[in-house]
Design brief:
CATH class of the largest domain: Alpha Beta
Strand order of the largest sheet: 3-2-1-4
Shape: elongated
Number of strands: 8
Helix content: 25-40%
């Protein structure tokens, strides 16, 4: 019996998981399979550093234990006749931009990990709720501030753009206005 365990970074409950699996393996009817699975799980349990936060892949047949570095985000436990392999996707990077009237962030993703490249908060004032003679003036001033904010985010986005696909998200009105102003 071959056991495969992929532990992504940030997972700290692996020791508890393996102890639970050992308890479950006690119910395997075949004595030789039960013995092999429990031996393999115990090897994995003994090899895990309690202070480690994941980022490893482990493979065992009950006797030999292979430990490899793992950069993926998917957790996998498999027990069967063959080892299971996960291919970590390292495809084309996608540029991400999230914008609203208060803040914005630009990042990139390879499908597995997200890296923040730039983030900032705006000085755009809230919508003016009062009526009167000044309401239109405050509205125009806010719109001008919002345009300046979108230009600033657009400039940073342009600096990070190298021909890769772009995904833009955020509040509907600001996002749509930003897409229209985008010089890319």
């Amino acid at each position: 019996m071959k056991i495969t365990l992929y532990i992504p970074k940030g997972k700290t409950d692996t020791r508890n998981f393996l102890n639970e699996e050992i308890a479950e393996a006690m119910n395997i009817k075949s004595k030789s399979t039960r013995k092999t699975v429990i031996a393999g799980l115990r090897k994995m349990l003994n090899a895990i550093n309690p202070y480690e936060d994941g980022g490893i892949a482990m493979f065992t047949d009950g006797e030999d234990l292979i430990i490899e570095k793992y950069d993926g985000v998917k957790k996998l436990y498999h027990c069967g006749h063959e080892y299971k392999r996960i291919e970590v996707k390292t495809g084309e990077d996608i540029l991400l931009c999230v914008i609203d009237s208060k803040d914005a962030a630009i990042g990139k993703t390879d499908g597995e990990n997200i890296t923040v490249l730039w983030e900032d908060q705006s000085l755009v004032p809230n919508k003016h709720g009062m009526g009167g003679q000044s309401a239109a003036r405050f509205g125009r001033a806010r719109q001008e501030e919002l345009k300046q904010w979108m230009r600033k985010v657009g400039e940073h986005l342009q600096q990070e753009f190298h021909g890769q696909p772009i995904k833009i998200g955020g509040c509907g009105m600001v996002k749509e206005a930003f897409i229209k102003e985008l010089p890319l």
